[in-house]
What does this fold into?
Amino acid sequence: MQLPREVIVGKGTLSRLPEVVSRLGLKGKALVLSDSVCYDVAGKTVMELLAKTGLTVDSFLVKSMTVDDLITVEEQLKRQKPHVLFGVGGGTIIDAAKVSSASQNIPFISVPTTVSHDGIASPLASVKGSEKPYSVLAQAPLAIVADTEIIIKAPWRFVISGCGDVISKFTAVKDWRLAHQEKGEYYGGYAASLALMSAKLVTENAELIVYRQDEGLRVLLEALISCGVAMSIAGSSRPCSGSEHLFSHALDHVNHHHALHGEQCGVGAILTSFLHGSNWQKIKSTLKQLGAPITAKELGVKDVDVVKALQVAAQIRPERYTILHKLNLGYDACETVARATGIID
It folds into this structure.
């Protein structure tokens, strides 16, 4: 079980990075991993702050999170031999940092610039570039420094996507419990409770988030971090990723011009909550209140894409038992579900 040793969330927290470095006793060489946009937003400041701590600092910019990109980052780490890696950016950068640092057996520190999904604190990373997207177990960050002043400057859509990802834990936990009941799969009550609590907190504080209050953003950040901790405790993504995530991945495969991952997970949670016979209306109304997509049109995809994605979602990960695997719905049944929930006309 890997858990962060330091978590600092709030306004202006980036300035506390030297304090974190000192408390963790980090010395030697640091490498800042970012992309061109995030480097300008926060990476440059991170480098300046780290230089003041006595660390030797260098940077490396990446564009995406494909297998080839990961190989390039790992080669860079082998050449530079840093003692610590700082991931400064959104989910793609943080994922690249956690995978590459784990492969080279060095710690990494997460400095998120967006909050579009729960990857900022989890030990798992999403890798693209193969026929299907897949997750790998890497390592949890040694520390997380999340500055709401920086995060709020990103497009607001990323915040809404993060909300969708957290709210989708309602169905992820239901799927995990189902797999435990019907397949004897390990089920961790504490990890499940932590994921559910995060979803409830975002739901209860939707109004604060809608009005872009700093307190609302803090709630979302803490919820996303708690989800990452839940996955660390469970030793897998089970408490945070179920049938709704499979739907999102399937939609990526069906239509490449897709919405953000968290937005798709939110819609997936509406559909799969309906299949579980639980309160899908509450999930839908909360997402609507937040301004998140709740229809195929709002996701920017065709009705047929949603139906097809729901039908093939179980094939994305056949080994991960969910309500979709249990019901094994045909195309017509999937279309009926999508219409009943108002996702398609």
